[in-house]
Structures are given as C-alpha cells and as structure tokens.
Design brief:
With 119 residues, the chain is mainly alpha-helical. It contains 4 helices and no strands. It has a domain of 81 residues. Keywords: Membrane, Signal, Transmembrane, Transmembrane helix.
C-alpha cells in the first residue's frame, strides 16, 4: 500500500491549502456556549455580578475542602485497616479512627454550611 505525502511545493497541496484558508470562519468555528448566571442571579451591576460569582466560587471551594477531608479520613482508615490485617494495630484502633474521622467530616461540613450562610 502506498502512502500519499503532501509537500507544500506540490500544486495540489497548495490549492487544497488555499481553499481551506478561504473558508469563512462561520464554517470552521462552532458557536460558544452561553455563560450561566450565578446562583444568586446576575445582579444589577458588574460589581454585584462579580460578588455573586465569587459566592459560587466560595461554595465550590467549601465543597473541595469537604471532599479533601473525606478522602483524607478514608485514606487513613484504609492504612489503619492494612495495619490491622498485618497485626500491627487492633480493631479498636480502626474503630477509633473511623469514628473520629466521621465526626471530623461532619464537623467540617457543618462549619462550611455556617460559612456559606455568612457569605
């Protein structure tokens, strides 16, 4: 099977390139999606709209903090479980880690909910 190579010196490639460059932009670019307003609404002015977007960013940051806390507790629980399986720690240690970790995640979510009310 033979492969076709296109060099810029070839007339066919030059014509193809010129046709592609002459296509109108509406044929080559897709329409961008419209931006959604913030959850509190667009606001009456630019500053209020920016504040509303910052509020949504703060809520997203809070969700990321809660996610990291949950993943940290889960990771530590798995490492303690591995230590239990290797007989370095007891089941009581695993229960304590899971209990305190669950309480910690609940407290973090509660604090973040209170912080969202303040914003």
């Amino acid at each position: 099977m033979r492969t076709v190579k296109c060099h810029l010196r070839d007339r066919t490639c030059q014509r193809l390139l010129s046709v592609l460059l002459m296509l109108p932009p509406s044929l080559t670019f897709a329409a961008l999606p419209t931006m959604e307003p913030p959850s509190r609404g667009a606001g009456t002015g630019l500053v209020e709209t920016i504040k509303n977007y910052a509020y949504d960013g703060g809520i997203l940051l809070g969700l990321m903090i809660a996610l990291l806390a949950f993943l940290g507790v889960a990771w530590h629980s798995l490492t303690v479980y591995a230590d239990v399986q290797n007989q370095r720690k007891t089941w009581k240690d695993l229960g304590a880690v899971v209990g305190v970790g669950a309480l910690l995640v609940v407290v973090i979510i509660w604090f973040l909910t209170k912080a969202a009310e303040i914003l």
